[in-house]
Amino acid sequence: MSGEPASANLPLRLRIERVLSLPESGVVFYGTVEQGVMTTGADVTGTRDGTSVLSTEVLAVTIKNEGLPTNGEPGDIVGLRLKAPQDDDGDTVDLFTTVRIGDVIGPRAD
Fold first, then answer.
1. Taking a C-beta distance cutoff of 8 angstroms, is the pair 29, 16 a contact?
2. Helices (H), 1-110
3. Closest alpha carbon to 49 in 9, 109, 99, 104
4. What is the pLDDT of residue 14?
5. CA 22, CA 39: separation in Å to the nearest integer?
6. Cys staple from 29: which of 47, 55, 80, 101, with CB 3.0 to 4.6 Å?
7. pLDDT of the residue at 2
C-alpha cells in the first residue's frame, strides 16, 4: 500500500442533502461525502436515479457552516460550488433548478 487511505481509491460519491441560493456565493450544495475524496477542480457528473443531469467542474469544496476550503473525505459534510455548464443551445444551466436533493455527484465518465 502507498499509505493512502483505502477511501482515496474509491470513486467519488456525494449525495446532495441541501440546495441554497446565496447572494454572496451563488448556488451552494451541501452533502455528505459517501466515498472517495471531493476536491476543487474535479470533473463531476450529477445523476438522479442513474440518469445524468449535468457534467461540470467543482469550483470549491468547503467545510459546512465555516466556509473554509477542504478536501471532503468520507463522512464529511461539505459545501460544494459547481461551475454552471451550458446546455446544447449555449445557454447557462440554472444549477438551482437542475440539481435536487437526493442527486448524487460522482466522477465524470469519459
1. yes
2. 95-98
3. 104
4. 94
5. 21
6. 80
7. 47
Direct distance between the N- and C-terminal alpha carbons of the chain, in angstroms, rounded to an integer: 27
Q: What is the mean pLDDT of each run of 10 residues along the chain (110 residues)?
A: 52 92 86 93 93 92 85 92 89 91 87
- What is the CB-side half-sphere exposure of residue 58 using CA atoms within 13 A? 28
DSSP 36: S
Say what the pLDDT of residue 102 is.
96
Burial 22-55 (b: 16+ CB within 10 A, else e): eeeeebbbbbbbbbbbbebebebbbbeeeeeebe
